[in-house]
Amino acid sequence: MKKIIVFCLSFVFLVSCKSNGNSDGKSTDGIELPKELRVIKGKVVDRKKKKVPYAAVKLYLDDNDCMYAYTGEDGSFEFEVEELRIKDQTHFEVVYTGFAKNMLSLRNFENGGSIVMSTKGNVIPVAEYNVFYEAIKSCSK
Q1: Running DSSP on this structure, what letter comes out for residue 71?
Q2: Which of 9, 61, 76, 122 is deepest in the core (most CB within 10 A)?
Q3: Are the beta carbons of 95 and 56 closer than 8 angstroms?
Q4: Hey, which bits of the chain come out as E strands?
Q5: Phi/psi at 59 (5° precision)
């Protein structure tokens, strides 16, 4: 009989612990639960697969929402984005001196892949690169 009582009390305790949170994504003590993050990683390279360091990478999530990053010495960049912020029109804009501006849809980008810069087209001069480099700081990081 003792085993049945202990089992019932244990069951009630477990059920009450599991139902402690609210359905709105917050626990009862007011702490917001983490949202699902998507990590987007890649590299910026030239046509010869040479790494492009210090390129400015802007990720347009939609018309009013963007994020930015700068490539490291190895040409790599990374974004941590809440999954709900990613839309169909989400795309990259990559700018670096001596290369044409590169626009690439996130749908056409393989995570961990490379964005290839080209010297064909309207090549970005140093002054325009510097303006873009500073201007993207108005986006969230």
Answers
A1: -
A2: 61
A3: yes
A4: 37-45, 56-62, 65-70, 76-82, 91-95, 102-105, 114-116
A5: -110, 110
Which two tokens mark 43? 């590299």
All domains of the chain, ordered by start, with CATH?
37-138 (2.60.40.1120)
Residue 48: which residues within 8 A CB-CB, separation 6 or more?
none
Runs of H (alpha helix) within the chain: 2-18, 126-135
pLDDT confidence of residue 122: 92
Rounded-to-integer distance, Cα 115 and Cα 135, Å:
21
Which residues are paired to 82 by β-bridges? 37
pTM of the model: 0.73
User: What tens digit of pLDDT does each residue of 103-124 get?
Assistant: 999 999 999 999 999 999 999 9
List Cβ<8 Å contacts ≥24 apart for 7-15.
none
Written as six digits, the tokens of 44 are: 């910026």
Residue 11 has pLDDT above 80, yes or no: no
Please name every residue paired with 67 in a beta bridge, in sequence order, or none if there are none.
59, 140
CB atoms within 10 A of CB 27: 11
